[in-house]
Amino acid sequence: MKQRLVLIGNGMAGVNTIEHLLKLSPQKYDITVFGSEPYPNYNRIMLSYVLAGEATAQDIYLNTYEWYSDNGIRLYTGHTVTDIDAEARTVTTDQGVTVPYDKLVLATGSNPFMLPLQGADKEGVMAYRTIQDCEKMIEASRTYKKAVVIGGGLLGLEAARGFLNLGMKVDVVHLMDAIMERQLDRTASEMLKNALEEQGMNFLLGKQSEEIIGDARVTGLKFKDGTSTDADLIVMAVGIRPNVELAKKTGIETAPGIVVSDYMETSIPDIYAVGECATHRGITYGLVAPLYEQGAVLAKVLAGADTAPYEGSLLYTKLKVSGVDVFSGGEFADAPDTKAIRIHDDFSGIYKKVVIRDNKIIGAVLFGDTSEGSRLMQMIRAGADISGMEKTAILREAGADGASADGAGVASMSDDAIICGCNGVSKGTICSAIKEQGLTSVEEVKNCTNASRSCGGCKPLVKDLLALTLGESFEHDAVKETICGCTDLSRDEVVIGIRDKGLTHIREVMNVLGWKNDEGCTKCRPALNYYLGMIYPTTYKDESKSRLVNERMHANIQKDGTYSVVPRMYGGVTTPADLKKIADVAVKYNVPTVKLTGGQRIDLLGVKKEDLTAMWQDLDMPSGYAYGKAIRTVKTCVGEDYCRFGTGDAMGLGIKIEKRFERLNTPAKVKMAVSGCPRNCAESGIKDLGVVSVDGGWELYAGGNGGVKVRVGDLLATVKTEDDVIEYAEAYLQYYRETGNYGERTSEWIVRVGLEHVRSVLADESQRNALRERIDVALSVTQDPWKEAVRSETIQKQLYEVVELK
């Protein structure tokens, strides 16, 4: 019989251990995982993208729910383990679930440290650690305008960057007189501070917080020097503490984290610990790479495989802080017995420093160009003697160590050298995958090994490893991204295969085009469903089970399992009758929260699944598609009807556009806007397609984005009439539908295919008209999904009825 393995903690360190174990001994254990948060394993490094609204919780999942079920793992989300009975070998959760174990792994992570300030219990004071924290911050940003972040480390700076993207003013308060002082020397810290100030951050350095001001809610922060600053929201990002309460309760030794041996064993037999909760040789690590190194050792121990002991990690950091590349490793501070080699280029914003003691490199700091980080870390780890080297050649000119023709920059690295610090992927792992799986592109390596899956800073090194491993067969200029790890085909190859071979169903595509995984995955199935619908709009029957949950349910699922309902409100314009109808429905179904969205619509939050179809029937309004990869909304200003500056009928044109394109499926969500004058009150310049009234006509702006990667739209065309606007919008949207990668926003698509190319396609009348004809066909067969669900008992039974278990 299989042994029973229980993992307490569903975070990056613990689940990475399970991933290693499944590769080493997939059949040895019956595995159960408990996680306090209501999500599968996700990437905390990417929380800033969620905070900025550029990614959803699902976008940063490292392992989907399907991954757990596919590997036979029982996952309990929203369960906090409250008791371990080491004698009976059982664990019990706060929801009364008790599970026996033969081996137990504690990966309980850490808790954010909250400063014990007077007033810290006021509303508006919080930490930044989880998806729920991000959601609270996003909600607050819709009402409040000034945030204060206490802590000038990485987490604090990422929180501040997120607030800037949400339109808030931000003060960063730091006790020290330099930011990220644990990772950067004085010069690099000052350069980073200057770069972030240009982005809009305001720094209050050398400030010790004394009291949080306000009555029930925070209004400001007072410092010990007598000064203060205003605040609507205060986020503490001042450090973390190992989460050891459960271990202490069980009688496991802690100091300050859970004390572990070189094989990750705790003081109680068959109980292990890994990650931020563990203390090894007196050190508790908070960076990803050391935690993954611990997990690799523990996985071998659990599998019964031979393993070298874990002897600690040499710390290094390679990060992208608010778009700025930084690296540090080893001992980078100057000391009396050290010498340093420096390159400092103010014009290009590049700073490099290598610290040497006894003719050995012991540390390094890189700012702006971090491509040499892995090579320098390898020299630090190896204790390489540089006495015979030309000292000035140790650091190369900026950009000289990028992806090389033959991969020579990575050839000297050992197999255990970490290439992807975010996900702890070594050179040996990548090279083995390239050889064994026949990988030929960075995208394939990412899908197979997770290298470059997070910040993407290691992509040049991954490309070097491809060149080194494949030799002459490596195509340096090939930019082939497969749609997922289930296939070696790119998006274009899949679409061509569907067209040329006349493939009409998802399973047929997978079978004929040689899918590695017969069932596909959560990445390729929705993509194939979209491509088939785009190619065969009149004959393809949409496969709802291949859609993600929000699109399948036609409502946004919330973290508590309820749903959000957003009815269509053309151009952000409504009537008193419709407002009354929405209010009556909200009262009838006890909707707890009614929220105005940034897209000028009304969001009914907290709706029970079993109430959805009845609510839609009572509303008798079209779906607003707030959940879909589709045309979302057209934001408008009041235009010439009411505004003193308005020169165009923004509301009228916005309504026309939204009615023309509602229900149109697109590769990713599409937001549009119409502004009645160049003052641009509808924010047309940062929409997927924005329209601005100017003297004598309308300007169309394409590829804008207001998320974490803010992008101002490019001027696509200037036209004379409203009919011209609709005509160009039809051609533009259809060309995006036909050439965009599934999940690719127009802001990325316009850069990839080229603005001038899109302009030339739309300027050609014959091509423009052909695109318009095809979008007309696609729009002719769309149906409102809410009305379809209301009419169909089958759909209601399959999707919306709650089955009571007896």
From TrEMBL:
Q: Which EC number applies?
A: 1.7.1.4
Which residue intervals define the domain FAD/NAD(P)-binding in the entry? 4-280
Q: Which organism is it from?
A: Paenibacillus allorhizosphaerae
Necessary cofactors: [2Fe-2S] cluster; FAD
Family assignment from sequence similarity: Belongs to the nitrite and sulfite reductase 4Fe-4S domain family.
Which stretches make up the Nitrite/Sulfite reductase ferredoxin-like domain? 558-620
GO MF term set:
nitrite reductase [NAD(P)H] activity
Among PANTHER family, the record links this protein to:
NITRITE REDUCTASE (NADH) LARGE SUBUNIT
Q: Where is the Nitrite/sulphite reductase 4Fe-4S domain?
A: 628-766
Residue ranges constituting the NADH-rubredoxin oxidoreductase C-terminal domain according to the UniProt record: 317-382
Record-annotated BFD-like [2Fe-2S]-binding domain positions: 418-467, 483-532
**Which superkingdom is the protein from?**
Bacteria
Q: Give coiled-coil spans as residue ranges.
A: none
Give the top-level enzyme category: oxidoreductase
Q: What is this protein called?
A: Nitrite reductase [NAD(P)H]
Extract the Pfam families matched here: Fer2_BFD (PF04324), NIR_SIR (PF01077), NIR_SIR_ferr (PF03460), Pyr_redox_2 (PF07992), Rubredoxin_C (PF18267)
Q: Cite the entry's keywords alphabetically.
A: 2Fe-2S, 4Fe-4S, FAD, Flavoprotein, Heme, Iron, Iron-sulfur, Metal-binding, Nitrate assimilation, Oxidoreductase
